[in-house]
Amino acid sequence: MTAPTTAAATARPAGPAAPAAPRRPRVLIAPVTVTPSKPLTPSHLKGLLWADVMYRATGQVADAALRYSHTAYHPTEQTLGFWEFLDRAVGDADFGAMDEEGIGALYVRFRQEGRRAPAAALRPYADAVEHQGWTHPAALRVLELWQRHYARLGMHDPGLTAHQPPGLALDDALGLLAADGLCLDQRPMGGPVYLDLTAQGLPLRQIVTADGRPNYLACALRDLLPLAGRYDEVVLLYDPDLDADYQLLQRVLQARGPAVHRVAVGRVPIDGRIRSAREGGWHGLHAGALLDALLSGHDRAAVALGARLYFLACLGPGQQESFRAGLLVQQVRRARRILDAGGAPGAPAAELIGRHRRGHAHVDAYRLTSGLLGRRPTRLPPDTLREVFL
C-alpha cells in the first residue's frame, strides 16, 4: 500500500536527499594461532595481546573481525602427531586433572622422540577433526585453562573451545588455487602439492605432502580464502620466522580483492635467547604463573593494562629485549597510576585512536599503546580505555 500524496507535497518539490554516512571499512584481523599443547610463554602472550589490542582498537573506527580458529589448524601434522603420541605413549590419562605444565612436559617428550607417525596412524584423527568436530581431551584441557588466562587479562575470547571449521575443504581450496594458476598438484603422480607463485618471483612452497598431510599454510588458505573477499582489509599477524610463508599468503589473499598487510610480532628472548616451546623451560614464566604472581598484589585492571604496556610498548615489535619480570611489575604499577588519573572527559575517542591508523583501516597497536606513555601521553576517555585495554 502506498501512502497518499497530499497537495502540499505536490506543491513543494522534495529537497536534496541528505548524504549517506560513509561506510565504515571492514577489517579482518587474522593472527597466527598457538597450538594448544603447552603453557602460554611470554612470546605467546606478546602476540596474543598485540592481536587483542589491534582488534579492539580497530573496532572503534571500523567494522573489525578477529579470526582465530584452532579447529582450522588441528589437521596439521604437528597437532595430530602429538595426539597420536599421547594415545600411544600415555593412553587413557586423566588430562582434565592435568595442568599446562604437565601437558607441556608431554609435548616436550613428543618433540624429543623425533618419531614421525605414519600417515595411516594420523588419518583417523584427521577424519575425526574434519567430520566429527573432535578435539583431543589434552588440547581441550589446555584451551580451557587458556580461557581463564584470557578472562584475567580482559582479552576477547575468539572461541577458543568452539568448533570453527574452515570454510573450504582442502580439495576445494586447492581447486581455487589451481583455477588461479597458483597450484602445482603432483598427487596424480604420487607427489606433493605446491603453492606456485613463481610467476611473481616467489619460490615454490610445498603445502601438502605426497601422503596427503597439509601444513600450516595449507590450513591458513582453507580458512582465509573464503573470508578475504568479504573485507576491505586483511591484517596478518605472525612470527617473523614465518615471514616467507606469510608473503605467499599475502599475495594469494590480495588476489581476492582486499588490501592485505603483514605485521610481524617478534618473540621474547629469555636470558638473551629465543627458545622454542618444544624445548620447555617455561617454569615460572608462563601465563598462569605470571598472572598468579601479579594478581596476588595488584588488581585485575592494573594487571591487564600493565601487561599490554609491557608486552607492546616496552618490548615493541622486535625481539631484542629479553623478558624482565621486574619491568613487567613496574608497568603494572604505572598502569594503576594511569587508571587513577582518569581519562580526558569529552575527548573524541575515535579521533584519538584514528591517529594511529597510519593510512590503513586497522589501528597500529604498538603506536596506540606507546602513546599512553611518555611526557605527553594520550589520555583516552575511561570507557574507551576500558573497551580497548581492559
Task: Explain what this protein looks like in three dimensions.
The chain is α/β, with parallel strands linked by helices. The chain has helices spanning 7-11, 42-58, 77-90, 100-113, 119-132, 137-153, 170-179, 216-228, 243-254, 287-295, 300-314, 325-341, 349-354, 365-370, 382-389, and strands spanning 26-31, 63-66, 183-185, 193-195, 205-208, 233-238, 259-264. The protein is 45% helix and 8% strand. The chain has a 4-stranded parallel sheet, sandwiched between helices. Helix 9 links the parallel strand 6 (233-238) and strand 7. The longest helix is centred in the first third of the chain and has 17 residues, at 42-58. The radius of gyration is 24 Å and the shape is globular. 41% of the residues are buried.
In brief, what are we looking at here?
With 390 residues, this protein is an alpha/beta fold. It is built from 15 helices and 7 strands.
Low-confidence stretches: 1-12
Average pLDDT works out at 91
What does the main sheet amount to? 4 strands, parallel
Radius of gyration: 24 Å
Helix content: 40-55%
Encode the helix/strand succession as letters: HEHEHHHHHEEEHEHEHHHHHH
| Strand line-up of the largest beta sheet | 2-1-6-7
- Span of the ends, CA to CA: 51 Å
- Give the helix tally: 15
Question: Structural class given helices, strands, pairing?
Answer: alpha/beta
Beta-strand percent range: 5-15%
Total beta-strand segments: 7
**What would the principal axes of the Cα set say about the shape?**
globular
